Description:
five-stranded antiparallel β-sheet; mainly beta; 7% helix; five-stranded mixed β-sheet
Amino acid sequence: MKKLLLFFLLLSKSILLSQTVLNSYPLYLNDPIENSQALNVEDTKTHDVYVFATDSKRINILKYNKSLFLTNQFTDSISNTQNKSLMGYSISEDGNPTLYWGSDYLKNIKIIKYYLETKTSKTLNFDFPQNNESILTTFQKNNNFYIVAKEKNEQHILLYEFKNGKCEIKMFDLSGFPFQNEKGQTFTFSSLIRYYPIEKMESNDFNPLDKTTSINKMYVLEDRIILTFDYNSKKTQVFDLNLETTAVTEKNFDQPVTKKASQNSNSFYSENQLFQIKTNNDEFLFDIKDFDSGKTLKSVSVSKNDTIRFKNSPFLLQIGDNKPQELKTTSKYLKQLSGLSVGVSVFKSKGNNFITFGGYLEYVAFSIDYGQNDFFNDGNQSQFSRTKRVFFDAALSPDFEFVKQQSEPLAIDNISYFLSITKNVSVQNILKLKNYSILSYYDIASKQFIMRKFTDGFIREDNGNPIMNKAQFSKPFRFDKS
């Protein structure tokens, strides 16, 4: 599983008080750093919680009831899943879990169903068709496992639904829709997603700028999938995929018009609204449109000489892991933003929309190590990846009015900082429940699998004052698992 990172400082006192150990279970994982994985999941019907923790030899399944008391445990060999990674899970109508193990090139999946009461398992193989080109993304919904895939040279998307031991395939045809950039150049759907892969956004969770700056996005809703494409700086092209009928509906939303030509535009979908941003060195434009009618609900235009009074944080610039630097003016913010991929992220909490406006870039940097006595020699050159982010925060009321409200830390913020200061942690995984989040991880030192509860918000003293004040909390960005 991927690792959470977060580059802001919180007081350790706050973190320690904002989490509670729910339970721990003695467990031995062989080589937990290199060859182990974990999933922490909820049965959406019974609200039982499962832990799937694997190493190179075995899988450990822990089942908890909704009160998080251990009710069952099963350890099984995984010799038939060598060289495969854990992709996801489903839970059958009979209450037994199934895990999906994918090969490196995702041509084959091992499907293993575990029967907890009898302590047995059953393995099936699933082979993708020969013309399968790529796996676009995977997701879980209503206890079922889904794979979104693309076939070679075909202008459609395939959705594989794994449910109760069966696989149903649905096709969404995009061959009849035009793909054309602002210069009038046309291309196919296949070439679009080959060069600009689709990034899946997380529903009801914060999506960081390194994801939201992607120009092609996918949003999985209850009965449909929304695809947004921002390859054309003049408009956002949207496809609404009906999961029941497989019908595909196209919509186009004009981007705000700048006085000076701009290629830097993007969008974000949230709760039936489309948030659009467009920038250049001189201007910052932002629109909110109703998804059904296309009506503009709010429009903001700011020039480089204006003061953005609705921001709830400074303009911040961050290079790599370094501490964020403050940019003093709108002009400096727009100048730094101009060389990045622009994006906007929206997260709804307590009725308000908390918005991050910014940009992101990942690039290759070089360093030369001359060594102790190699000043006059060429030295050893190495390359490494660096990142750059520029951003600020704002908040909107349900009536689309900007409000001066600092966004409090989310549970994921507290989890991220906890992980940054805690040693001996491996195979961590996060399960977001209705009112809190669970961080599960393997403690290498104590050889235990631990589950901790984290909540949103500042931790407050008995007098009601937050232990952290705004100066001590800065939300430059949150990394999803990376």
